[in-house]
Amino acid sequence: MRINLIRKLMLGTIAAVTLMIGIGSATSAEAQARVVRRPPRVVFYRPYRPFYNPFYWGPTWNRTYTVVDPIAAQREDGYRDGMDKGKDDAKDGLGGNPERHKKFNKSKSLAYREAFLQGYAEGFNREVG
Questions:
Q1: Region 34-41: what's the mean pLDDT?
Q2: Considering 6, 22, 27, 84, which has the largest number of Cβ atoms within 10 A of its Cβ?
């Protein structure tokens, strides 16, 4: 009779530990599903100094910076890349298929892909006539 009581106690303990582990893993899964947001890209613009004066010991450029929108930068890159690839395909006599290019296929940005398609169509049509 004591053996049955000890078995029930052991099985209850194992069941409780298993449930606690299951609850613990569910809460850590929620923490892993967070979205990580990156800060915006910062670009430094420095004025052009055509003449170098080795005897001037002051700062050589102004200490200013401009924050650039990363989505707008992706659009510009995509449009420029698409325009170049469209012109190249038209010169080589290939059909207008932007999906054959690695930059378009490997991009994970929707803004880059849309701009690539626009630039590709415009570059291809300009070159074809």
A1: 74
A2: 84
